[in-house]
Amino acid sequence: MADDSKRKRTRSPEHPSINLETALKRAKQFYDIENRNAASLIVASKHWGYEPKSSGGLQTAATLISFGLLKDEGIGEKRKLQLNQIAIRILLDARPDSPERAALIKQVALTPKIHKQLWEKWGASLPSDAQFRHTLIVDWEPPFNEKSVDGFIKEYKETIALAKLTESDQIAPVDGEPDGSYVPKVGDFVQWEASGVLQLFQPTRIREISPDGKFALIDGSNTGIPVSELIKEQAPATGSPTMPAITDLRFHPAVPGRQMQEEIFSLKEGKVVLHWPSPLSADSVQDLKDWLAILERKFQRSVPPKEPEAK
Asked: What is the pTM of this model?
């Protein structure tokens, strides 16, 4: 009979090895070097300060994946890591007190399976650390290892605190769909994501859905946006944003493979905003040059005449 001291070690359930605050810092380190591109696990580990194939790099990658900040594909040396769009939206949202960023942080905080289970069990009313520990070691299935349980409790509490979760925060699929898919409705506020790029200044209200249900019109625009590219968002605090007027009043669906580019030029009188689809054909570029020449004449006519100098 094997000695009791050689019993099989209890393996804890899968759980984040670092809290969400640190995970977001690791995501930022990845973004600062790789931007939206994919990188091998070995390269990503170096970005985080670990030696190739170290356990620290593996654990960090696994944690960012469990939070939904990273996605991976391939195996072994061909395994690639890439930031998810939700991570990019959090990292690039520099607006003070952004409700969208706050909502996304709440979402990723409860993305790990073990976090979701504990939130469903206790919500924001956590028991004492002693009871928390007892539950995870004795009552949980599979149980936690005694050597790792304290570290996990600390991580979970720090993550919940960072996300500022309250009893009113619920875990539910978007719009109540069983599979979490979103079905847009008139009046919803949405963000438009095409080819991995967010196209709108901020969430904007849907004012119309096409008869076949495939395209949506948003306030301030007459471009038909594929509903499959819409993401439901919270309404901005100031309501629907004012968008530049679009002179083409036809319902024109977005063309697959193209995305809208934007340039903003600030003048003392206000901002000039230009949107155009990319890429453009050579003929379209020439048409735009001709149109801009017409606009130049209009701009000149709007300049008030100079008053005669006093003699």
From this structure: 0.56
